[in-house]
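The records we work with from here on pair a chain with its fold. These numbers are not coordinates but entries in a learned vocabulary of local backbone shapes. To see the layout at work, look at the sequence and tokens printed below.

. . .
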Amino acid sequence: MEILYGLHPVEEALKAGRRRFDHVLVARERQDDRLERVISLCRDAKVAVRQESREQLTVVAGTPAHQGVVALVRAQEFLSIEDLFTPLAPNTSRLLLALDGVEDPQNLGALLRVADGAGVDGVVLTERRSAPLSPVAVKASAGAAEHLRIARVVNLVRSLEELKRRNLWVIGLDERGSCDYDQFDLTGDCVLVLGREGAGLHDLVRRTCDHLLRIPMAGGVSSLNVSTAGAVVLYEAFRQRRNAAARVEKGIAPGTGGKPKKQKGLGS
């Protein structure tokens, strides 16, 4: 069994219905509507609820940041890369996120939260040299980790090559990229690859990418934090895809995706 703590992670895990709950502990000192909502979800799911002191919850969670809710749940089961071949919705372009060695659980959680909000079809994590999907990461995701399709792979390069064979463009984010992220067509089938904090993409992963995009920086630093950079590019992809869907509804042909946008000349 695993520990989940925090209002959002426990609430979203109950809503998603993917995990088996053993029981949920709530702090007897806390009584408010948010906690009552969690307790109501537990009743609906026939999950046992026990009241304990806040101090006891801190012992079980291993942190005082539990917000008065701690759950004992079955460990989350990861998917295989094959499970991510198909999109969430039929007849839509696939958008995946692959993380190349993100080690900070707060960054991992923040990226999962952004991925869920931006409509990502699935996330690819590596088994080694990366942050585990720990209670800290799940809490940082505000429970988004419970709703995402997440695959854990041994060899990221091999998985990216397999995604290529499934007609996805592999697009890396790198400060040395040749194209600005907002000048690239992200409406097609693609997987965005983000690298390690500070070090960026591994060399072999970088060479596997079909395109490398950069985020232009106007200040004195050369790059953004990986979770911030991921949010910028994923929501640009989300924006482009919403606009493309609106054009299709109006009978306008969509773009091909996976290519730099054509630049308009002066006076055009």
Summary: Residues 7 and 232 are 27 Å apart (CA to CA). The chain is about 35% helix and 20% strand. The chain has two domains: 2-73, 81-249.
